Amino acid sequence: MKEKTAxxxxxxxxxxxxxxxxxxxxxxxxxxxxxxxxxFHRLPMPRFGPDLSEVDLSDxxxxxxxxxxxxxxxxxxxxxxxxxxxxxxxxxEKEALAGLGAQVDSEVVYRSILEEVGAQGVxxxxxxxxxxxxxxxxxxxxxxxxxxxxxLFAALHGAVWSGGTFVWVPEGVEVEIPxxxxxxxxTQGVGQFEHTLIxxxxxxxxxxxxxxxxxxxxxxxxxxxxxxxxxxxxxxxxFTTIQNWSRNVxxxxxxxxxxxxxxRVDWVSGSLGSxxxxxxxxxxxVGPGASTENLGFTFARDGQHLDVGARxxxxxxxxxxxxxxxxxxxxxxxxxxxxxxxxxxxxxGAKGHVECSTLLLSPGAKTETIPVLxxxxxxxxxxxxxxxxxxxxxxxxYLMSRGLTEQEAMSLIVxxxxxxxxxxxxxxxxxxLKRLLEMSFEGAVG
Amino acid sequence: xxILKIKDLHVSVEGQPILKGVSLALEEGEIHALMGxxxxxxxxxxxxxxxxxxxxxxxxxxxLSGEDITHLPPDQRAKMGLFLAFQYPPEVEGVRLxxxxxxxxxxxxxxxxEFQEAYPKAVRRxxxxxxxxxxxxxxxxxxxxKRAELLQAWLLRPRVxxxxxxxxxxxxxxxxxxxxxxxxxAEAGTTVLxxxxxxxxxxxxxxxRVFVLQEGRIVQAxxxxxxxxxxxxxxxxxxx
Lengths: 446, 240
Hints:
The structure holds two protein chains of two kinds.
Chain A: E1 5-6, H1 13-22, H2 27-42, E2 64-65, H3 78-86, H4 89-96, E3 99-104, E4 107-113, H5 115-119, E5 123-126, H6 127-133, H7 135-141, H8 152-160, E6 165-169, E7 179-184, E8 195-200, E9 205-213, E10 221-223, E11 226-231, E12 236-243, E13 249-252, E14 254-259, E15 264-271, E16 276-279, E17 282-285, E18 291-300, E19 305-314, E20 320-329, E21 334-343, E22 350-360, E23 366-375, E24 380-390, H9 393-400, H10 406-422, H11 427-438
Parallel strand pairs in A: 3-7, 6-8, 7-9, 8-11, 9-12, 10-13, 11-14, 12-15, 13-16, 14-17, 15-18, 16-19, 17-19, 18-20, 19-21, 20-22, 21-23, 22-24
Antiparallel strand pairs in A: 1-2, 3-4, 5-6
Helix pairs in contact in A: 1-2, 2-8, 6-7, 9-10, 10-11
Chain B: E1 2-13, E2 16-27, E3 31-35, H1 42-50, E4 55-64, E5 67-68, H2 74-79, E6 82-85, H3 97-107, H4 112-125, H5 142-156, E7 160-164, H6 172-187, E8 191-196, H7 200-204, E9 209-214, E10 217-222, H8 225-233
Parallel strand pairs in B: 3-8, 3-9, 6-7, 7-8
Antiparallel strand pairs in B: 1-2, 1-4, 4-5, 9-10
């Protein structure tokens, strides 16, 4: 077994070259990394959103292989195995998944795919392996959906990305049960920058789920993953994320999809953990009749600032988007929702709907909704609704008058509030979300 | 033996005194009516009895089966067998009527299997088949809301049911459905207090005793003939 590989802290050309060498990458990928690094040095920190001053990009370990890849759960180090067992991953793999990948720190340590799904020609590989084994397929799309120029963290990601998954679904193939990836940040001070690229060929469909967690350390940690999705003509991709990072993690992600003609991309995002999150899954509707649904559930608790949103860019006629968010905020937490729908001059007949509701569970909870509806032609239907409220005393009294305790009544109301999103989330996660919600109802009546 | 005893109850809402010394007793297993014009304090009495936090008891006591419930939270009163059918039940989005009743019945010691059987039966009894899996009162018509309240009483089998204007704004056929449900509740042992400003429902469910509330006080109590007097002559006839 190889030694643990940890690179020095900080970000230099030397570090980027070492990451590339460590992975045995082809020349084009190294060049892409170095170009991204150059761009990174030129770009400013984001000019909107949460305070990131605590993030010191020179004090992060950008690459750590702490665990060697294994072929079965049994071979994993005891501590990691226990974690994955507790998360129920081995069971989920047996019962409900077409494929599963698990990443610890910088590298994917476990991956499996159902034989029959593999036999349909579906590719489900750790990103590094895909770069080596399917260079043409990867190169065509890698960081083309989100170029490094897009923003500072896209550039940073491009320079130091490590791990993640490549999914390719052949034309007409429908993967009926979900593929799942699980990300674990195990070691203090190490950043995680996994790259997920999903390419769905015409008429295919796939559902991809990612979950994540980390033990809580005192030191600030950085997670800056990237997800790129290409849904070709008539393809359907559904991407579900349940984010439950520990509360020392800055979770600054880039997620974007391109939907070609008649394609459909659905994002389902549950944001629960992290200290600070910036997450705005975006669908670019480039083909006529393409559509997207973007459902977000945010649960912000004491000390958190979750700045989330959803964007749909309509660049072709008869495209449609539906962005729905439900936020529950407790303690002194803050949740921001940025909903953006842009319609280009060409995108006649576009329809967009943005809906954002927030439930405040405490007097100190803060929220902000920033909708942007921008249409550059007249033949569009755009709608926006936003509501902010507290648990109604009268509702609570009504439920309690039937014998429910205050706790049960609140739990029922909050679960009811988030139910439009919860019902879209895979059951095992939905149950976990319910449990987390139920744990935090004290002093919530307004 | 009275099952519910109200002694000299004074209740204020937002500092405004509404009930000014209400005393009455409900006899176990009987149907009672509380009548009074709009604004006489009927709903205030209902909410105060059920324990709404905005309805402040300034004086007096409420005893349920001999136990003082004056300052108990609403869920404990419910667990002791008190039920209030709301005049205006709130619409609670995302909460399904079935799920809500399953939880409520569970809290009150009815088993799950029992509920699985009881729910469809109750739904049919109240002609609410189409609403059985809907969100709680959301988009229900006025009459549907009233029937859904009776459905809940039917499932929870309370010892005392306070029915606040269960017949108002309801068409003739629905009144019959509601009246039958009330009679059946009473036959099964629930003590009933029908709160109404209009005697129509009382023709279908004759009360053993009638109380008249005006300006926060009980101004008269009597047998079923009192309801007929009010029907014929209005509340003027019973002013003190």
